[in-house]
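COURSE: Structural Biology Practicum
ASSIGNMENT: Worksheet 4, Part C
STUDENT ID: 0417
INSTRUCTIONS: Below are two proteins. For each, the amino acid sequence is given first, followed by its structure token string. Answer the questions at the end about the second protein only.

PROTEIN I
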Amino acid sequence: MLWATMTTAAAVAVVAMMPAAAAIAGGSSSQHSASSYPGKYPVVSTDKGKVRGEADSMVTSFKGIPFAAPPVGNLRWKAPVEAAKWRGVLDATKFGGSCTQGTGWDPGYDQPTLNEDCLYLNVYRPSNVKAKNLPVFVWNHGGGNTGGAGKDTNPDKFVTRSDVVYVTINYRLGAMGWLDTASLEQSNRNDGATGNFGLLDQQAALKWVQKNIRAFGGDKNNITLAGQSAGASNTCAQLASPGAKGIIDHAIMQSGGCSARTADAARASGLRFATQIGCADVATQVSCLRGKTPAEVLAAQTAVRQSGPVAGNRVLPSNPLDLLKAGTLTKVPVIVGAVSDEAQQSVFGSNDYLGNPITTQRLSELISTTYPAAAAQVAAAYPAASYWSPSVAWGDILSDQSACSTQTLRDRMANNTRTYSYEFAEKNGPPFTSIWRLNTDYPFGATHVNDLGYLGDYLGTALPFSTDQVALSNQMISYWSSFAEDGSPNVRYAPVWPKYTPQGKLLQFVAPSAQVVSHATLDAEHNCQLWDAVAPAA
């Protein structure tokens, strides 16, 4: 996500923590008693206590439910532990705090979030459906594992157009979620949590769902874990983690791969981080790290980025990519795909475009330094004169390389389990929410994150879709919700989504309707013959 690449600890404002207990009230508040109709504030019992949500005519929501104890003090850089029980009724009409992160383009993150009490989830269900045991759709947010929150996704239109219980979750980010040092490993030797705190937070949320979702109308034996970008990569990691085995029934991966850091690489990066923050001494490192403020953690993280799962431990014994290649990743039905112009957003958001637009000469330099053995071939395939600007040419180069890597991913996934694949290629819609607000004429195409607006409202904005794009949105929601129901995305009155086989057929989403395309067609559209030779997928 664009704003995740622009995090900083430059601001000094402090976001105060509000413990879950502060939101607990016995009986009815004046707000609740003032309700003009019955059922406005439904109460549901969970294993830790009762929660009071809020119903409207279409969607009933329960926000800010703690699924684990606040990871503060001695629980910082520890595996999540169960939340404490509460008395009375928890007010679940407002979101819980987001996890520590820097600033971003969205107004909700225009100041750094210096909050650690953040392990909350949100539950949404159709208000007018009386049936129990609805399919459960759990959304694993993106943000480069350094930004984002469950509240960023408003699933109302997904919920109103399908009978599912929809859950969005938080998990620890950046160094708070993914730091690995030898000293932290020693302090967590009993559970091997080090480096994968964020992954374990996601598992804690999934286990909460499995334990409690029936009370909200969901089926604990029918859980789909879906994610985009880092959330998609984390979803793949969950399919490789023993701790998530038996919880996930279907998986959806949008614009993300299957990879993890090696333990050695994570430790080396963690040591650089510890040195940067002033905690290099091994003997006192853990207490020193826990003594640093969130602002100090963010500042060190800006210099030495910490993000993403670590393989080679009890939480993630093997790299998910290795299991995928071997065909031994957990075998559940999977949807896997990406957008056709993944990199245009990141090129636009980089300093190269905003502060110093890429010139024809600079494009030539980028090609030569990035692809030294094939610079002439790449330059010939992407001549700057054929593009709106050299920046767009560079974005097209990076996007096509990414698309061809996705081609390899979908083939590997199809060799592992039942797979349905897609490419989102609606190039004429409004771009990524925060960029759309800038009213720029940059030709983004179907760039990273653009597909999310067709499945829900993202970052607080309902994008201005055309009638044809609304039709595409309805169709995509139908496919996604059908897949959550039984592992097959197919619905009546829409093109048949074929099961994907290596080098086979998939769906391409272009308004107003999906269409079946072949692997060969996408190979040609994205110059994959070139990229498979120049930059083959790992």
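PROTEIN II
(use this one for the questions)
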Amino acid sequence: MFSCGRVIGVALPFALPLPKKLFQHLLFTPCFMNNLYLFSFLPNPITDPVAVFLIMMGVLLIAPILFEKIKLPGIVGLIVAGIIVGPYGLGLLERDKTIILFGTVGLLFLMFMAGLETSLDDLKENGDKATIFGISTFAIPMILGTVAMSLIGYDILASILVASCFASHTLLSLPIVSKRGLMRSKMMTVTLGGTLIVNILALLVLTIVVRANEGDLTLGFWLYLIPSLIIYTFATLLGVPKLGRWFFRTFGRDEGAEFTFVVLTLFLVSYVARLIEIEPIIGAFLAGISIRPLIPPLSPLMNRIQFIGNTLFIPLFLLSVGMLVNPATLIQEPRSFLVSGVMIGVAIVAKFIPAWGVGKYFKYSFPNIMVMFGLSVAQAASTLAAITVAFNIDLVDELTVNGTIAMILVTCIVSPWVTTKWADQIKMAESSSSASDSTMEKSEEEKSPMYRVVVPVANPNTEDNLLNLALLLVNATKGKLFPLHILTDTNGIISQGEKIRQAQLLETAEMIAHATATEVQSIARIDSSIDQGILHVYQECDANIIICGWKGFSTYKDNFFGGIIDNVIQKSPVPVLITRFTEPIKTTKRIVFAISDFQYNSPSFEEALTLTKILANQLNANLHILLISASGVVIDNRLMGISFQQLKGNFSRRVLQEIQPDDLLVLMSIGDHKVVGTPTLGTIPESIARNYRGVSMMIICLKTH
């Protein structure tokens, strides 16, 4: 036996005529590299908490950067770094309770964020096709994987569990598809829906195998598991959104409390899963799906969740996974090459077959089939989750962990390469106007102009909703935000207190915008009047949207002489969004766009519809068109795929009958002329606001074209 104590000088194994087995022992002993003079000053392993965290943060910074430089995903770099600094590499860090804690938190965060990317609406829209693809891309890897692992000597439970790793997949290359504007295609909807199905089934297989390994797979287990899983799933999917809406309504202005609530929800749902003897990662996945409707994709809250998860918790999990790998088994156990080769081969073949078969059945083009394959072949999230759980209960050994890591490394290289190559071909075909069923439809964000939005901020109580609305539009179209505060000099010299308050309001606006990495330019202005200041700034900034808050009614003075909003609407040639939020915008469940037959036939309707669609997409809200007409209106393809009703009767009364709590009511106001004595917005918005004080409203004011 050899001691791991430090030595002075260099003890290289090739300097001595050592037997082969002794050479292997020295080369792959955890303390070997510390025997080099270069590392002799380091303890083995490091136990100082500050030093441990320092090394971890250094690895999290350097490893992804280095691997991305050589065109490999950062996830690969983190796993390799875990191997190097772990007990089977340099031995700098021990996989102790601290590492396990960080790894567990990262694992749950990873599954939670996978749930945040999964939309139940995608599954509903193409449920039949998504179900076929999901079952196919689950069943084929399960069958091939179970047979293959059994043939190389694995017992049945281990074979089934490893096969479930082949079945699940991580949408590692989703950003590649998103950047090319292909997210709204039918192929993508089927792939996303299938991903939801396959990951849930794979996680269920994991739960069943774990219980079988413990000897608890009895009739009582099934009688307990199925009802408890059904109750737990429905309670999570229905209860979490309701609880979240209540919390955001009550504490919506406290951004720190919002983030803490989301994290608390994640761990509460995961812990309840453990209490009913289901793997916590299933709970984390369901928590992400259930809370997704409350967190707009481009909101500051989503940005914080993704930032903390992607930069801290998930990388720490990947680091901890790498620390499980023992490179010595590559030499000590030649069988590891066989295990790794089989796992890599089965993973790739078993994902290509369902993508090709289902794609052919749905008559997709070959580039679409390859994109489906590229997206579904990557193994990372669920695979790491399952294999970590299995290793912790001794269901699989180091050989399997090493083979899994090798499979992850290869598939994480294959997936981006395949997806990039064939997604580019789809875009080239689209740009050359190739008409086929697989031609991708451009999203509403691509059709719309780049929104440059001016938002006057004056009231801290309404500032958050106005800015969040602006951020959703700006980020969806990669535009720019201009928070504006105006001080009027009509009463003489402006006090220092007013200037300080102005600076504070604009600093808050900038902080909210920077949380979503939005391009922002705050403007502090002194002008003769607020409305004139708004109109001057929008021209100076070349803005194409103005967003203003509204109290819900107009005074007689406003109606006769014109208030701030009236003057801005009348004199602005760009769209003006007049908003009245009674609840946080993030709690919006449905957007009801109510229009008359005159508005529907107006040339301005398409502009308003595009803006409303973008808002619905960003809020994860359902869009419902309410067409109220005196006579029947012929519906054209502009409303294709959108929920709508065509009603007759009094406009205000019919709207009040249809709107529900958590709705955002969108109205249109078209024209250039104002009738003296009436609001510029017209009487309908004020009538609705007075009769339903709890409704949130947005009026899109447009000029006639």
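ANSWER KEY EXCERPT:
Q1: The chain has three domains: 45-431, 443-549, 583-705.
Q2: The beta strands are 452-456, 480-488, 523-527, 545-549, 576-580, 590-596, 622-628, 643-647, 663-670, 696-702.
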